[in-house]
Amino acid sequence: MLKNKNVLVAAIICLCLSNGNTAFSKDVGVVLSKIPGSNRAALPGNKNAVANFEEGSNLYKQGDFKGAEVAFRKAIELEPNFVQAYIALANTLDDQGKPQEAIAHYKKAISLDPHDSGAYFNLGLTLARLNQLEPAIAQYKKALSLEPNYADAHYNLGNALYTQGKLTEAVTEYTAAIRLKPSYAPTYTRLGNALYDRGELAEAVTQYKKSISFDPKYADAHYYLGNALYAQGKSAEAIAEYTAAIRLSPKNPAGYNALGNTLYAQGKLEEAIAQYKQALNLEPNYADAHYNLASAFYAQGKLTEAITDYTEAIRIDPKHAQAYTGLANAMDDQGKPQEAIAHYKKAISLVPNDAFTYYNLGITLGREQQLEEAIVNLKKAKELFQAEDNKEMVEQVDQLIQKINIRTN
């Protein structure tokens, strides 16, 4: 019986095409104006402090963060209780890669005005970038308790909840953000991602298309729409969306990798290989692209090339279980069963519930006359296939176990 084919890795949700819309961005407006209904502090009466503050705001908008920092510090020196200046200074420090200093100044602003929703929001953004999700969520929720119609806070709270895998809660927050800011395209894409992860493909497609209707040049929406269409088996439509994503974001490897997978699924291996190579030209350390390229080589019978790229995927990502399985398949086909067995076992140690890896390991062990161990692994494969309701593979495993039992009797 044949080993299973290698499963391509699309990195469907975890690899976004761009980083520009992962958040609405810092609430820069907090330093100059109020969100309707908020309780943010008014500017102080010290005209020199306000002048330095406004100078810093202009420099910040121009991207001169160091100059802005100097101006904001001067404003605080002249007016030590200048809440907006502390927030603005924190924004500037965060943008200069000084998150801990930024956090201290956000907290100072909060201590001076506990009702400033923007301070909590910006503090949440900084904490989220440090992957401190629970503290970030607490700050977003505090901002929303003060300003329930704060669209940016709903959106970023949705992002943090999504990252934690709390999809239902994320959907709630994205929906609230859309109600408050209905023309912001990335929110529909994020909502689509959450729906996709819940297996609601048709609904996800609807959201991605809404995102594109508001911003036809939003590459991420085209990319994720391509993923959803691909998952629905609509290869031609998926290719059109991936092509659009590549046109709009030609230096991002994710689109090429995904397009390669769709071409692979159509049996167009040479075209798929060209796309994987383009992804790797842009990002040589793209582990999934190396894995997918190796799988395409494997499908062509080019074992040496396949082994090279499986090995490279593992070097980049030592926990890439699929790459170990692919490498094991190629090693076995090269007549190196003991090396294959070691790689299958490594894959199982990383992902203990992959039925096909146990199945492949059982086949190789059986061929090597390690029959008792072969049966143990095949029974484990059967158990997992049964849990997946994969009746065809359950039948194949039963047949294989029966043949081994005949050989041992």
Automatic annotation (TrEMBL):
Signal peptide start-end: 1-25
Organism: Nostoc punctiforme (strain ATCC 29133 / PCC 73102)
UniProt-recorded Gene Ontology molecular function terms: glycosyltransferase activity
Keyword field: Repeat, Signal, TPR repeat
UniProt lineage: Bacteria, Bacillati, Cyanobacteriota, Cyanophyceae, Nostocales
Pfam families: TPR_1, TPR_11, TPR_2
Protein name per UniProt: Tetratricopeptide TPR_2 repeat protein
TPR repeat windows: 49-82, 83-116, 117-150, 151-184, 185-218, 219-252, 253-286, 287-320, 321-354
InterPro entries in the cross-refs: TPR-like_helical_dom_sf, TPR_2, TPR_rpt
Superkingdom of the source species: Bacteria
